[in-house]
């Protein structure tokens, strides 16, 4: 059975560090029962959690604020961006000087951030210096420092991780209720676009299965978030869940009767229900209409529109190989139409906007983050879902996605710390017995 962090070359997730400390799941440590999403967890009745830091409350406020971004300025900025700016301002100096595992991984990612910035600067030769392009460049560079800064601060406070998980559940519940009781064909909730709301709900559904929440609460939240996702009518939001579950099932066997099997059953029921609703229009004998736009006709229309966009993006890249500038929209179906749109695919968007150099930098950053997360753990499961959803929508700048990924990464590290604290006394006792 794969263990999270077994292939991490450095840091606390490495197999060498685990064997030296006698962490559960390693050769020198016991193997506790697997917890939610496959993370092995034990509980110590005597160990107290450290106090939460101010930065942890800042991250929790940013998580809640990322779900309430319906009010924006003309530059597509939201009040939560101010919180993220302060988070990065506080985190980057610490990341550059600390010897912690998140800080070391951030320094590995730093050269690729510089390359991404260089690609954006080079594309200015095509696009010209414009304020909206410079703002888009800043938005493309901000997510990675945000993730590492949040991960660094939360890795120092297990209590902060708990607070942020609760903030995630609260934000998801608020968005779900707003979507379910909203007006219109597709529920937007607290967002300006139903696809954004669906994406947050998909991420929140995955995070719901972290922590020590009772099983009935997990099931209730799963049903709430799933029903709201159907109401948004977002096909891409379901890719977050499908990608996370697919990686989870692929990376470890699921034992019958375990917590993992309960989660899989709930998610499979939701997926089957959404599939049935999507093809309900083919059943002529029924007049049922959910009113969410989640049907086969809209799926076909969305698919054909994206194919046209990707072809237009490819033609644009052939005409401007070094990129047309960050955040630029492309003409749909040729320049004669006059209609413009975003490309609905992160890889194509970076290729068209920043050229091959920008795309290479983004792929390298994702690989660095992937290798920083534990194998078989919830961090890679959520990242797999985010990668899957990025195939049909530009999600790189989604604030909630990076914050949630940081919380899950910190949860993994806190879980490993609990293992170490619980395993060391047992290892010491065994060494003393062997010496006697």
SSE sequence, one letter per element: HHHHHHHHHHHHEEHHH
Strand order of the largest sheet: 1-2
What is the terminal-to-terminal distance? 34 Å
Task: Flag low-confidence runs.
Answer: 1-51, 279-290, 334-338, 424-436
Overall description:
The two termini are 34 Å apart. With 436 residues, this protein is an all-alpha fold. It has one domain (53-419). It contains 15 helices and 2 strands. The longest helix is centred in the C-terminal third of the chain and has 37 residues, at 399-435. It has a two-stranded antiparallel sheet.
What would you say about this model in short?
This protein is an all-alpha fold and 436 residues long. The protein contains 15 helices and 2 strands.
